[in-house]
Amino acid sequence: MARRRNRGVMSEELKYELAKELGVFDTVAREGWGSVPSRDCGNLTKLAIEKAEQMMRDQNQGF
């Protein structure tokens, strides 16, 4: 059976940056990611997607 490598898409640095933006960094620092409510994790993912889309729009405007 092939082993799948469990690799995150977002860097740890980006996750912490987004956590600070959403106001959950203190929870993450104190208790870890498992203590962040699922709604906030969803918001973190949504924010990451929005930032990635904005970066793509910015790059496309340069051409």
TrEMBL record:
Example of a GO MF term: double-stranded DNA binding
The protein's matches in Pfam families, at most eight in alphabetical order, are given as: SASP (PF00269)
Q: Name one GO biological process term.
A: DNA topological change
Answer yes or no on keyword Zinc: no
> What keywords is this UniProt entry annotated with?
DNA-binding
Superkingdom, natural source: Bacteria
**InterPro entries recorded:** SASP_alpha/beta-type, SASP_alpha/beta-type_CS, SASP_sf_alpha/beta
* Entry similarity comment: Belongs to the alpha/beta-type SASP family.
Q: What does this protein do?
A: SASP are bound to spore DNA. They are double-stranded DNA-binding proteins that cause DNA to change to an a-like conformation. They protect the DNA backbone from chemical and enzymatic cleavage and are thus involved in dormant spore's high resistance to UV light.
Q: What is this protein called?
A: Small, acid-soluble spore protein
